[in-house]
Amino acid sequence: MSLIQEVELLEFNHTVTYGYDAAGQRLRDEVLPTRTTRRFAVRIRSEDGVEGNYVVLWSAPPYAISQVAALARSIIGLDIFAREQIWDRANRSFAKNDRIGAGAIDIALWDAAGHAAGQPVSALLGAFRDRLPAYASTVGGGHGLGALSDPESYRDFAAWCADAGIPGYKIHGPSTGSVRAEIDALRAAAEGSAGRTDVMTDPGNSLRTLADALALGRVCDEIGAYWWEDPMRDNAPFGHKILRERIKTPLLLTEFVRGLEMRMAVALQGGTDFLRADPELDMGITGVMKTAHAAESIGIDMEVHASGPAQRHCMAAIRNTNYYELGLLDPASGNPLHPPVYACDYVEDASAVGPDGCVAVPTGPGLGVTYDWDRLYADKVDSTVFRA
Length: 388
Hints:
Layout: E1 4-17, E2 34-46, E3 51-55, H1 65-75, H2 83-93, H3 102-117, H4 121-125, E4 131-140, H5 151-163, E5 168-172, H6 179-193, E6 198-201, H7 210-223, E7 227-229, H8 237-246, E8 251-253, H9 260-268, E9 274-277, H10 284-297, E10 302-304, H11 309-316, E11 324-329, E12 358-360, H12 373-378, E13 380-387
Parallel strand pairs: 4-5, 4-11, 5-6, 6-7, 7-8, 8-9, 9-10
Antiparallel strand pairs: 1-2, 1-13, 2-3, 4-12
Helix pairs in contact: 2-3, 3-10, 5-6, 6-7, 7-8, 9-10, 10-11
């Protein structure tokens, strides 16, 4: 056994500069607003020197930190390779919570296992592929973060992505609750793609009514969308079953549904065509793989949410999945929300896509990335170490 001796929880700030106003107009440098968000990293060390690390990128919000701390205390003295036991403990202990904090711990444990074995995580999972078809997933329009603000900007970026050989293009539309704005952005994206890429839309649960969702769904059918995602404010299976009965485009849900059992319940009650799971949100790599296998058992696909090394390793080991979500991309600023945490050449922007339309799976041991710990500690807000 390799007993866990220490868990470090490092909190740091990531500052994003807003270069555009709500109309998509470039702001003068002297008036650029900023937003600082709290991120965190987990470092796990065993008594015999095995170490695993993970830096949370965006999906797990700051209030997950209390869950991480609680779980960190409980795993001191356990075998660093006992991932299933630790996953079950977290699933049971946090049954009345969203369980988000367990994700970072689980991913760090997989990183430790890979380093101990000298193998990438995807190999430990049972690799199915080493190149991942990617789609450009845009930032949301009209929020002052990026250059996407009107239908023409979505059209131009869709054309640029198609020219760059990226095989899929998913918009996060205005997300204002206006179905007309969502429809206009989607139609513009399809025009820019001109049939060269798969087009998807994700209103982010912003549409207020079933009628609005049906209106957007009819446009999805009209343009031949590859899928549409989380259109309505709620995740009730009954309402989404109506959408599936009346709209041909496959429906993708469960980004906003926590718990393996609840995600499967949505599928089994006819509420979705595809499932979503995220290693940061859904209890780690272990949680994603459980969801993928459960989806496979009932004959549906499972799409991995968001981007990062954990997502790449998961997708590499899943047969019943289609696209890697490369995002969130902006035509002017690249990937502004993704914190610069790497000391290696790992990137999450359009340059990661090769001539085959795919991104690579890291081949080094564990997650296969090197973190820039000097930078992370320089941006440190707080650090807590739990020891045996």
